[in-house]
Amino acid sequence: MNHAIAQPILLLVWVGLLSSSFVVSGKILPYASPIAATCLRFILTSLCLAPLVWRSCNIKLTAKQIGQYALISGFLVLFFVGLFESLKTITAEKTAVIYTLLPLISVFLSFMFMGIKTRASQLFGFLVGTASAVWMLIQGQSNLLILDDWQYGDSVFLIACFCLAMHVVLIKKWATTQSALISTFYIALLGSLLLLPIMLFYDDLARFAWQNQTFWIWIIYLTLFTTLGTFFLQQHLLKKVSPNAFLAMTYLVPAFVLFFQGDLSQILLNMPALLIAFFALYLITRAP
Fold it and tell me: Which keywords does this chain's UniProt record carry (predicted)?
C-alpha cells in the first residue's frame, strides 16, 4: 500500500482504538472497581510484553531509572483510575470531550517543565480543535445546560488528563534512552506493583466478577487492542509522522465515540463540528 495512503489509515485505526477505550471502560464498571480493573489491565500488559523484553536481553535499569519510571507509571495509573472513576457519573461522550483538552495541557506543561514553545498557528489549531469538541458535546445533548452541569466525574477526569499530560512530559524528559518496548514494559510492571497492594488490602474485591465471561472479554480487549495495539501503532507511526499529528488526532475522539455507540444520526448532526476538527488538524500538522 502507498505510504501516503497507509499513514492516514493507520492514524485513524490508532485513534479509533484509543476512542473505543472510553466506551469499553464504562462497560467494565459493573464487574470491577476502578483500581482492580486498572491493576489487572497493567498485569496482563506486563505478561504479554515479558517474553518480548526477555528476548531483547536489555532489561536492566539503575535505581535512579527505576525511580523515574515509577513516577512515570504512577501518573499513568492515576489517569486510568480516574477514567474508570469518572465513568461512574459522566458519559463516555463527555470524557472524550474533556480528553481533547489534553493537547493544550501538554503544550502548557511542556513549556513549563521543558521550555518547549509552540507556534502560534498550532496553538490556534489546538483552540479550534477544542471548540469543535465542545460543539459536538452540545449537539449531542441538544442544549447548553450540559456545560453548566459540572459533576464530580468531570473534575476527576480533568485531573486525570493532567496526570496523563505529566506522564507524557516525563517520558520525553526521562524515558528516551531506553527502547519503547522496554519503557512500556517497565511502566506497566511498576504500575502493577503500585496498584497490587492497594487492590489486595484496601479495595472491595468481593464485587470483583472474576467468573463473569463478559468482564474478561472487555478486559482482554482493553489489554490487547487499546493498550498493546495502540502502543505498537504509535511506535510505528512516530517514525513516519510528527508528534503533533498525534495531538491533532485527539480532536476526532468524540466523533469516534459516537460511532462506537452506534449513534450515526449524531455523527451526521455533528458534521460541521467534525469539519472544524479537520481544519484544526491542518493548522497543527502543517509545515511552518
Answer: Membrane, Transmembrane, Transmembrane helix
Domain extents in the chain: 3-285
Cell numbers describing residue 46: 506486563
Cell numbers for 252: 476526532
Q: Could you count the other beta carbons within 10 Å of the beta carbon of residue 197?
A: 11
Output helix, strand, coil percentages for the chain, rounded to the nearest 5: 80, 0, 20
Long-range contacts of the stretch 266-273 (C-beta < 8 A, 24+): 266/139, 266/140, 269/139, 270/135, 270/136, 270/139, 270/140, 272/135, 273/132, 273/133, 273/135, 273/136, 273/139
Q: What does DSSP assign to residue 250? A: G
Rounded to the nearest angstrom, the gap between the alpha carbon of residue 287 and the centroid of all alpha carbons in its chain is: 26
| Residue 111 · residue 170 · CB < 8 Å | no
Burial of 120 (0-12, 13-18, 19+ CB in 10 A): exposed
Report helix angle 152-174 to 102-114, nearest 10. 40
Cβ–Cβ under 8 Å, residues 228 and 51: no
DSSP 15-31: HHHHHHHHHHHHHHTTT
- What single letter denotes the amino acid at residue 139? Q
Q: Residue 157 in 3-state DSSP? A: helix
Q: Of 193 and 114, which is predicted with more confidence?
A: 193
Candidates 183, 146, 148, 190; CA nearest to 168 is 183
pLDDT band at 259 (very low <50, low <70, confident <90, very high): confident
Please measure the distance between the N-terminal and C-terminal CA atoms of the chain and give it in whole angstroms.
28
